[in-house]
UniProtKB/TrEMBL annotation:
Gene3D superfamilies: Anthranilate synthase. One of its GO terms (biological process) is L-tryptophan biosynthetic process. This is Anthranilate synthase component I family protein. It comes from Nocardioides turkmenicus. InterPro entries: ADC_synthase (IPR005801), Anth_synth_I-like (IPR019999), Chorismate_C (IPR015890). GO terms for cellular component: cytoplasm.
Protein backbone atom coordinates (compact mmCIF):
# COMPACT_ATOMS: atom_id res chain seq x y z
CA UNK A 1 0.00 0.00 0.00
CA UNK A 2 1.31 3.43 -0.86
CA UNK A 3 1.78 6.39 1.45
CA UNK A 4 -0.61 8.38 -0.75
CA UNK A 5 -3.36 5.89 0.01
CA UNK A 6 -2.67 6.15 3.74
CA UNK A 7 -2.81 9.95 3.59
CA UNK A 8 -6.09 9.79 1.68
CA UNK A 9 -7.58 7.50 4.34
CA UNK A 10 -6.50 9.81 7.14
CA UNK A 11 -7.70 12.92 5.33
CA UNK A 12 -11.02 11.24 4.59
CA UNK A 13 -11.39 10.41 8.27
CA UNK A 14 -10.51 13.94 9.41
CA UNK A 15 -12.99 15.47 6.96
CA UNK A 16 -15.73 13.06 8.04
CA UNK A 17 -15.15 13.77 11.73
CA UNK A 18 -15.31 17.53 11.15
CA UNK A 19 -18.49 17.50 9.05
CA UNK A 20 -20.60 14.50 10.15
CA UNK A 21 -21.92 14.66 13.75
CA UNK A 22 -22.47 10.89 13.95
CA UNK A 23 -19.67 8.83 12.46
CA UNK A 24 -17.11 6.10 13.18
CA UNK A 25 -13.90 4.44 12.13
CA UNK A 26 -13.46 0.86 13.34
CA UNK A 27 -9.78 0.74 12.61
CA UNK A 28 -8.67 -2.90 12.48
CA UNK A 29 -4.98 -3.55 12.71
CA UNK A 30 -2.39 -6.32 12.90
CA UNK A 31 -1.46 -8.36 15.89
CA UNK A 32 -4.37 -10.65 16.77
CA UNK A 33 -3.65 -13.47 14.37
CA UNK A 34 -6.82 -12.90 12.35
CA UNK A 35 -7.93 -10.98 9.30
CA UNK A 36 -10.31 -8.19 10.27
CA UNK A 37 -11.71 -5.44 8.13
CA UNK A 38 -11.38 -1.74 8.86
CA UNK A 39 -14.66 0.11 8.28
CA UNK A 40 -15.62 3.77 8.23
CA UNK A 41 -19.01 5.40 7.95
CA UNK A 42 -21.33 8.27 8.85
CA UNK A 43 -25.03 8.66 9.57
CA UNK A 44 -27.51 10.95 7.83
CA UNK A 45 -30.15 12.89 9.74
CA UNK A 46 -32.79 10.21 9.11
CA UNK A 47 -30.61 7.37 10.41
CA UNK A 48 -31.33 6.01 13.91
CA UNK A 49 -29.02 6.10 16.89
CA UNK A 50 -29.46 5.08 20.54
CA UNK A 51 -27.98 6.42 23.77
CA UNK A 52 -28.25 4.95 27.27
CA UNK A 53 -27.93 6.56 30.70
CA UNK A 54 -27.35 3.92 33.37
CA UNK A 55 -28.07 6.27 36.29
CA UNK A 56 -31.53 7.07 34.90
CA UNK A 57 -32.06 3.60 33.36
CA UNK A 58 -33.14 5.28 30.13
CA UNK A 59 -32.54 4.43 26.47
CA UNK A 60 -33.17 7.30 24.04
CA UNK A 61 -33.79 6.93 20.30
CA UNK A 62 -32.53 9.71 18.03
CA UNK A 63 -33.67 10.39 14.46
CA UNK A 64 -34.27 13.48 12.29
CA UNK A 65 -33.31 15.77 15.16
CA UNK A 66 -35.98 14.28 17.45
CA UNK A 67 -35.46 12.22 20.60
CA UNK A 68 -37.85 9.73 22.17
CA UNK A 69 -37.65 7.25 25.04
CA UNK A 70 -37.11 3.70 23.74
CA UNK A 71 -36.89 1.64 26.94
CA UNK A 72 -34.83 1.00 30.06
CA UNK A 73 -32.44 -1.78 28.93
CA UNK A 74 -29.95 -1.13 26.13
CA UNK A 75 -29.56 -4.83 25.27
CA UNK A 76 -33.33 -5.30 24.90
CA UNK A 77 -33.77 -2.15 22.81
CA UNK A 78 -30.80 -3.00 20.60
CA UNK A 79 -32.15 -6.50 19.98
CA UNK A 80 -35.54 -5.06 19.02
CA UNK A 81 -33.88 -2.60 16.64
CA UNK A 82 -31.77 -5.34 15.06
CA UNK A 83 -34.94 -7.34 14.32
CA UNK A 84 -36.12 -4.39 12.19
CA UNK A 85 -32.75 -3.66 10.56
CA UNK A 86 -32.31 -4.44 6.83
CA UNK A 87 -29.67 -7.10 6.10
CA UNK A 88 -27.31 -4.63 4.40
CA UNK A 89 -27.04 -2.38 7.46
CA UNK A 90 -25.08 -2.71 10.70
CA UNK A 91 -25.05 -1.15 14.15
CA UNK A 92 -21.83 0.43 15.42
CA UNK A 93 -21.22 1.62 18.96
CA UNK A 94 -20.21 0.83 22.51
CA UNK A 95 -21.54 -0.59 25.79
CA UNK A 96 -20.23 0.94 29.00
CA UNK A 97 -19.38 -1.05 32.13
CA UNK A 98 -22.75 -0.39 33.85
CA UNK A 99 -24.97 -1.48 30.94
CA UNK A 100 -26.29 -4.59 32.71
CA UNK A 101 -28.61 -3.30 35.44
CA UNK A 102 -28.82 -6.77 36.96
CA UNK A 103 -25.14 -6.58 37.93
CA UNK A 104 -23.56 -4.32 40.56
CA UNK A 105 -21.70 -1.43 38.94
CA UNK A 106 -21.14 2.13 40.06
CA UNK A 107 -23.06 4.79 38.11
CA UNK A 108 -22.95 8.55 38.13
CA UNK A 109 -23.71 11.53 35.93
CA UNK A 110 -20.78 10.71 33.68
CA UNK A 111 -19.09 12.72 30.97
CA UNK A 112 -20.58 10.62 28.19
CA UNK A 113 -23.54 8.22 27.75
CA UNK A 114 -23.11 4.70 29.10
CA UNK A 115 -23.90 3.35 25.63
CA UNK A 116 -24.12 4.70 22.10
CA UNK A 117 -25.26 2.67 19.06
CA UNK A 118 -25.69 3.96 15.51
CA UNK A 119 -27.45 2.21 12.62
CA UNK A 120 -25.80 2.73 9.27
CA UNK A 121 -26.08 1.34 5.74
CA UNK A 122 -23.07 3.37 4.68
CA UNK A 123 -20.14 1.55 6.24
CA UNK A 124 -17.32 1.10 3.75
CA UNK A 125 -14.14 -0.91 3.98
CA UNK A 126 -11.00 1.22 4.08
CA UNK A 127 -7.35 0.30 3.81
CA UNK A 128 -5.28 0.48 7.01
CA UNK A 129 -2.59 3.11 7.11
CA UNK A 130 1.11 2.21 7.19
CA UNK A 131 1.38 4.63 10.10
CA UNK A 132 -0.01 1.79 12.22
CA UNK A 133 3.23 -0.12 11.83
CA UNK A 134 5.66 2.61 10.84
CA UNK A 135 6.80 3.32 14.39
CA UNK A 136 7.75 -0.05 15.82
CA UNK A 137 10.69 1.16 17.85
CA UNK A 138 10.64 -0.36 21.32
CA UNK A 139 9.74 2.10 24.03
CA UNK A 140 9.79 1.24 27.68
CA UNK A 141 7.76 3.83 29.56
CA UNK A 142 9.59 6.03 32.02
CA UNK A 143 8.75 5.25 35.62
CA UNK A 144 7.31 8.30 37.34
CA UNK A 145 8.77 7.39 40.72
CA UNK A 146 5.58 8.63 42.37
CA UNK A 147 4.57 7.42 45.80
CA UNK A 148 1.47 5.24 45.83
CA UNK A 149 -1.44 7.56 46.75
CA UNK A 150 -3.16 6.82 50.08
CA UNK A 151 -6.54 6.43 48.36
CA UNK A 152 -5.15 3.71 46.09
CA UNK A 153 -3.47 1.98 49.04
CA UNK A 154 -6.75 1.95 50.98
CA UNK A 155 -8.60 0.44 48.03
CA UNK A 156 -5.83 -2.09 47.48
CA UNK A 157 -5.85 -3.11 51.16
CA UNK A 158 -9.64 -3.54 51.08
CA UNK A 159 -9.27 -5.79 48.02
CA UNK A 160 -6.61 -7.83 49.80
CA UNK A 161 -8.94 -8.40 52.76
CA UNK A 162 -11.61 -9.71 50.40
CA UNK A 163 -9.12 -11.97 48.64
CA UNK A 164 -7.79 -13.42 51.89
CA UNK A 165 -11.35 -13.96 53.12
CA UNK A 166 -11.96 -16.12 50.04
CA UNK A 167 -14.59 -13.80 48.55
CA UNK A 168 -12.71 -13.46 45.26
CA UNK A 169 -9.74 -15.02 43.50
CA UNK A 170 -8.80 -11.88 41.58
CA UNK A 171 -10.10 -8.29 41.47
CA UNK A 172 -9.49 -5.86 38.63
CA UNK A 173 -8.82 -2.58 40.49
CA UNK A 174 -8.99 0.52 38.31
CA UNK A 175 -8.96 4.29 38.49
CA UNK A 176 -9.83 7.23 36.26
CA UNK A 177 -7.52 10.04 35.12
CA UNK A 178 -8.85 13.32 33.72
CA UNK A 179 -6.94 15.73 31.50
CA UNK A 180 -7.82 19.17 30.16
CA UNK A 181 -6.72 19.71 26.56
CA UNK A 182 -8.33 21.51 23.61
CA UNK A 183 -6.84 19.18 20.98
CA UNK A 184 -9.13 18.34 18.06
CA UNK A 185 -10.53 14.82 18.69
CA UNK A 186 -9.72 13.60 15.17
CA UNK A 187 -6.11 14.73 15.54
CA UNK A 188 -5.97 13.10 18.98
CA UNK A 189 -7.10 9.83 17.43
CA UNK A 190 -4.50 9.96 14.65
CA UNK A 191 -1.83 10.54 17.30
CA UNK A 192 -3.15 7.68 19.41
CA UNK A 193 -3.11 5.17 16.55
CA UNK A 194 0.51 6.09 15.79
CA UNK A 195 1.57 5.91 19.46
CA UNK A 196 -0.20 2.66 20.29
CA UNK A 197 -1.21 0.55 17.25
CA UNK A 198 -3.72 -2.10 18.24
CA UNK A 199 -6.12 -4.58 16.64
CA UNK A 200 -9.17 -2.93 18.23
CA UNK A 201 -8.44 0.70 17.47
CA UNK A 202 -11.37 2.92 16.67
CA UNK A 203 -13.10 6.31 16.78
CA UNK A 204 -16.80 6.68 17.57
CA UNK A 205 -18.43 10.11 17.41
CA UNK A 206 -22.00 10.92 18.40
CA UNK A 207 -22.33 14.71 18.26
CA UNK A 208 -19.94 16.05 20.96
CA UNK A 209 -19.23 12.62 22.47
CA UNK A 210 -16.16 10.68 21.28
CA UNK A 211 -14.57 7.35 22.14
CA UNK A 212 -10.97 6.93 20.96
CA UNK A 213 -9.65 3.40 21.33
CA UNK A 214 -6.33 1.64 20.91
CA UNK A 215 -7.39 -1.59 22.59
CA UNK A 216 -5.49 -4.87 22.11
CA UNK A 217 -8.25 -7.08 23.54
CA UNK A 218 -11.14 -8.85 21.85
CA UNK A 219 -14.40 -8.91 23.75
CA UNK A 220 -16.16 -11.29 21.38
CA UNK A 221 -16.70 -12.21 17.76
CA UNK A 222 -19.67 -14.15 16.40
CA UNK A 223 -19.46 -15.56 12.87
CA UNK A 224 -22.00 -16.86 10.35
CA UNK A 225 -21.72 -20.37 11.83
CA UNK A 226 -22.69 -18.96 15.25
CA UNK A 227 -19.24 -19.60 16.66
CA UNK A 228 -18.48 -17.14 19.44
CA UNK A 229 -14.88 -16.41 20.40
CA UNK A 230 -13.36 -14.28 23.13
CA UNK A 231 -9.67 -13.57 23.76
CA UNK A 232 -9.01 -12.40 27.34
CA UNK A 233 -5.75 -10.68 28.20
CA UNK A 234 -4.27 -11.19 31.65
CA UNK A 235 -0.57 -10.51 32.03
CA UNK A 236 1.12 -7.43 30.64
CA UNK A 237 4.73 -6.25 30.60
CA UNK A 238 6.40 -3.32 28.80
CA UNK A 239 8.66 -3.84 25.80
CA UNK A 240 12.40 -3.77 26.38
CA UNK A 241 14.76 -1.04 25.20
CA UNK A 242 17.10 -3.60 23.60
CA UNK A 243 16.43 -6.85 21.75
CA UNK A 244 17.92 -8.89 24.59
CA UNK A 245 15.91 -7.12 27.27
CA UNK A 246 12.77 -7.37 25.16
CA UNK A 247 13.18 -11.13 24.75
CA UNK A 248 13.87 -11.55 28.47
CA UNK A 249 10.67 -9.67 29.32
CA UNK A 250 8.72 -11.80 26.84
CA UNK A 251 10.04 -15.04 28.37
CA UNK A 252 9.32 -13.83 31.90
CA UNK A 253 5.74 -13.00 30.95
CA UNK A 254 5.25 -16.46 29.46
CA UNK A 255 6.51 -18.24 32.57
CA UNK A 256 5.58 -15.85 35.41
CA UNK A 257 3.45 -17.83 37.92
CA UNK A 258 1.44 -14.76 38.95
CA UNK A 259 0.47 -13.83 35.40
CA UNK A 260 -0.33 -17.42 34.48
CA UNK A 261 -2.53 -17.82 37.55
CA UNK A 262 -4.39 -14.56 36.73
CA UNK A 263 -4.94 -15.67 33.15
CA UNK A 264 -6.15 -19.15 34.12
CA UNK A 265 -8.71 -17.76 36.58
CA UNK A 266 -10.23 -15.55 33.89
CA UNK A 267 -10.19 -18.40 31.37
CA UNK A 268 -12.19 -20.55 33.80
CA UNK A 269 -14.67 -17.70 34.27
CA UNK A 270 -15.12 -17.28 30.52
CA UNK A 271 -15.51 -21.01 29.93
CA UNK A 272 -18.34 -20.88 32.46
CA UNK A 273 -19.91 -17.80 30.81
CA UNK A 274 -19.77 -19.42 27.38
CA UNK A 275 -21.10 -22.72 28.69
CA UNK A 276 -24.31 -20.90 29.69
CA UNK A 277 -25.03 -19.89 26.08
CA UNK A 278 -23.23 -22.53 23.98
CA UNK A 279 -24.02 -26.07 22.91
CA UNK A 280 -22.88 -28.65 25.47
CA UNK A 281 -19.34 -29.84 24.76
CA UNK A 282 -18.61 -27.11 22.21
CA UNK A 283 -16.58 -24.80 24.46
CA UNK A 284 -12.85 -25.17 23.80
CA UNK A 285 -9.60 -23.33 24.48
CA UNK A 286 -7.65 -23.54 21.21
CA UNK A 287 -4.86 -21.26 22.46
CA UNK A 288 -3.81 -21.00 26.11
CA UNK A 289 -1.63 -18.11 27.34
CA UNK A 290 0.13 -17.18 24.11
CA UNK A 291 2.43 -14.14 24.25
CA UNK A 292 1.43 -11.41 21.78
CA UNK A 293 3.69 -8.40 21.23
CA UNK A 294 2.53 -4.87 20.49
CA UNK A 295 4.38 -1.58 20.07
CA UNK A 296 4.50 -0.82 23.79
CA UNK A 297 3.75 -4.12 25.58
CA UNK A 298 3.86 -7.91 25.56
CA UNK A 299 0.57 -9.50 26.65
CA UNK A 300 -0.56 -12.99 27.69
CA UNK A 301 -3.62 -13.92 25.60
CA UNK A 302 -5.93 -16.94 25.64
CA UNK A 303 -8.62 -17.87 23.11
CA UNK A 304 -11.93 -19.38 24.30
CA UNK A 305 -14.49 -20.51 21.73
CA UNK A 306 -17.90 -22.20 21.54
CA UNK A 307 -20.99 -22.64 19.34
CA UNK A 308 -24.13 -20.76 20.40
CA UNK A 309 -27.27 -22.77 21.17
CA UNK A 310 -30.17 -22.32 18.77
CA UNK A 311 -32.26 -20.59 21.44
CA UNK A 312 -29.59 -17.95 22.20
CA UNK A 313 -29.44 -14.76 20.13
CA UNK A 314 -26.22 -12.89 19.49
CA UNK A 315 -27.34 -10.04 21.75
CA UNK A 316 -28.25 -12.59 24.41
CA UNK A 317 -24.76 -14.10 24.18
CA UNK A 318 -23.02 -10.71 24.31
CA UNK A 319 -25.09 -9.83 27.36
CA UNK A 320 -24.24 -13.09 29.12
CA UNK A 321 -20.53 -12.41 28.77
CA UNK A 322 -20.80 -8.74 29.78
CA UNK A 323 -18.74 -7.13 31.15
CA UNK A 324 -15.51 -8.81 30.10
CA UNK A 325 -14.22 -11.16 32.78
CA UNK A 326 -10.71 -9.78 32.35
CA UNK A 327 -12.03 -6.41 33.56
CA UNK A 328 -13.84 -7.75 36.62
CA UNK A 329 -12.10 -10.77 38.11
CA UNK A 330 -13.52 -14.04 39.40
CA UNK A 331 -16.13 -14.95 40.43
CA UNK A 332 -17.79 -12.18 38.45
CA UNK A 333 -20.82 -11.23 40.58
CA UNK A 334 -19.08 -11.12 43.96
CA UNK A 335 -16.03 -9.44 42.47
CA UNK A 336 -18.14 -6.72 40.86
CA UNK A 337 -19.66 -6.06 44.31
CA UNK A 338 -16.14 -5.63 45.69
CA UNK A 339 -15.18 -3.32 42.82
CA UNK A 340 -18.24 -1.14 43.43
CA UNK A 341 -17.33 -0.83 47.11
CA UNK A 342 -13.66 0.13 46.63
CA UNK A 343 -13.47 2.21 43.43
CA UNK A 344 -14.15 5.89 44.08
CA UNK A 345 -15.45 6.73 40.58
CA UNK A 346 -17.80 4.99 38.16
CA UNK A 347 -16.06 3.31 35.23
CA UNK A 348 -18.34 4.76 32.57
CA UNK A 349 -17.35 3.51 29.11
CA UNK A 350 -14.07 2.03 30.40
CA UNK A 351 -14.16 -1.78 30.80
CA UNK A 352 -17.09 -2.03 28.40
CA UNK A 353 -17.12 -3.21 24.78
CA UNK A 354 -17.29 -1.53 21.36
CA UNK A 355 -17.55 -2.58 17.72
CA UNK A 356 -20.29 -3.67 15.33
CA UNK A 357 -23.31 -5.99 15.30
CA UNK A 358 -25.17 -7.15 12.17
CA UNK A 359 -28.83 -8.20 11.92
CA UNK A 360 -27.77 -11.70 10.76
CA UNK A 361 -26.11 -12.26 14.15
CA UNK A 362 -22.49 -11.58 13.23
CA UNK A 363 -20.57 -9.33 15.61
CA UNK A 364 -17.05 -8.11 16.34
CA UNK A 365 -16.32 -6.16 19.53
CA UNK A 366 -13.23 -5.19 21.48
CA UNK A 367 -12.81 -4.39 25.18
CA UNK A 368 -12.69 -0.69 26.04
CA UNK A 369 -9.18 -0.37 27.44
CA UNK A 370 -6.29 1.90 26.38
CA UNK A 371 -9.01 4.35 25.42
CA UNK A 372 -9.97 8.02 25.79
CA UNK A 373 -13.40 9.62 26.06
CA UNK A 374 -14.55 13.22 25.85
CA UNK A 375 -17.82 15.13 25.74
CA UNK A 376 -16.25 17.82 23.57
CA UNK A 377 -15.66 20.31 26.38
CA UNK A 378 -11.89 19.94 26.49
CA UNK A 379 -11.99 17.36 29.30
CA UNK A 380 -10.70 13.88 28.51
CA UNK A 381 -10.95 10.76 30.66
CA UNK A 382 -9.07 7.48 30.61
CA UNK A 383 -9.18 4.43 32.80
CA UNK A 384 -6.26 2.32 33.92
CA UNK A 385 -5.63 -0.51 36.34
CA UNK A 386 -4.87 -4.20 36.64
CA UNK A 387 -5.70 -7.53 38.23
CA UNK A 388 -5.02 -7.87 41.97
CA UNK A 389 -4.28 -11.24 43.59
CA UNK A 390 -3.01 -12.10 47.06
CA UNK A 391 0.54 -12.01 45.63
CA UNK A 392 0.23 -8.40 44.42
CA UNK A 393 1.76 -5.36 46.09
CA UNK A 394 0.29 -1.86 45.99
CA UNK A 395 3.46 -0.11 44.66
CA UNK A 396 3.88 -2.63 41.82
CA UNK A 397 0.23 -2.52 40.80
CA UNK A 398 0.09 1.27 40.90
CA UNK A 399 3.28 1.50 38.80
CA UNK A 400 1.73 -0.88 36.24
CA UNK A 401 -1.39 1.29 36.04
CA UNK A 402 0.90 4.31 35.52
CA UNK A 403 2.73 2.93 32.52
CA UNK A 404 -0.49 1.65 30.95
CA UNK A 405 -1.76 5.26 31.08
CA UNK A 406 1.52 6.82 29.96
CA UNK A 407 1.16 6.16 26.23
CA UNK A 408 -2.38 7.55 26.18
CA UNK A 409 -1.26 10.72 27.92
CA UNK A 410 1.43 11.21 25.31
CA UNK A 411 -1.41 12.10 22.93
CA UNK A 412 -1.60 15.39 24.85
CA UNK A 413 2.10 15.70 25.74
CA UNK A 414 0.90 15.41 29.33
CA UNK A 415 2.79 13.74 32.21
CA UNK A 416 1.04 11.65 34.78
CA UNK A 417 -0.77 13.81 37.36
CA UNK A 418 1.60 14.92 40.11
CA UNK A 419 4.80 14.49 38.03
Amino acid sequence: MTQAMATTTEERFAEMASTRPRCFWLDAGPGDGTTRRSIMGALRDDDVSLTYDAARREVLRHRDGETSRAGDDIFTVLEDELARTPPDEIWVGYLGYACRPDLPAGVDAGMVPDAIWMRTPRATTVEPSPARTASRARHRPERSGRDTPPAYTRAFDAVQRELRAGNSYEVNLTQRIRVRDEIDPALAYLRLRDLNPAPYAGFIQHHDVRLLSSSPERYATIDTDRMIETRPIKGTTPRGTTAAEDEALRRDLASNPRFRAENLMIVDLLRNDLAMVCEPGSVTVPSLMAVESYTSVHQLVTTVRGRLRDDVSSIGALRALFPAGSMTGAPKLRTMEIIRSVESTARGVYSGAFGWIAPDGRADLGVVIRSLTTAGDGTWELGTGGGITIHSTAPEEYAEADWKAERLLRVFGTPLPGD
